[in-house]
Amino acid sequence: MGAAFATAVGLAAITLAVSDFATTALGRALCVTTRFSFLLFWVTYTGGALKTLFGVAFQPVAWRGRDFGLAFAAAHLVNIGLFVWLCRISAQPPLSPPVFWFLAIGTIWIYVVALLSIRRLARAIGYLRWRMLRVAGMEYISLTFLLTFVGHRLHGSASGILLYVPFATLSLAGSFLRLTAWASRGAIATKRA
């Protein structure tokens, strides 16, 4: 968690230092930290699916899902701080109210899922409720990233394509992997029954 947070701070600081600390620089730093935290989320989100689909080679990734998830939550704190800073210095809100609330709910889910990683709390609410909340939260977070990357208009520039297309592809691939793993587990369970 500490390493992920420090890396996100470092990425933001470098981006701001290279730029001029203005509104556009904050936007760039937000882009960089969003992508870094997304990569941590993606490993968390797909680790179990990769193990199910591709075997024990991905077992260490699946076992470390909680660690990657907490690292993601820590790194995303930097993103939240940058966004608050951007809101404070912007003449007008950087996001429309519907987009703001959609992303705010995603942020709330990040920390609800992080809280659910506390084993004592998970046991207290029961496995089924814990599982339902965790899956709902992970899917909502995935949807916020997907819409962030897929919903952005590309202006035809190479940097625009590099900033969005690989991450949109990973986001779509993550959902596909999870859906395929779910179907695979269902097929295996049906054969055993």
Automatic annotation (TrEMBL):
It comes from the Bacteria. The chain crosses the membrane at residues 37-56, 68-86, 98-118, 138-155, 161-183. Keywords: Membrane, Transmembrane, Transmembrane helix. The keyword Transmembrane applies. This is Ferric oxidoreductase domain-containing protein. It comes from Rhodopila globiformis.
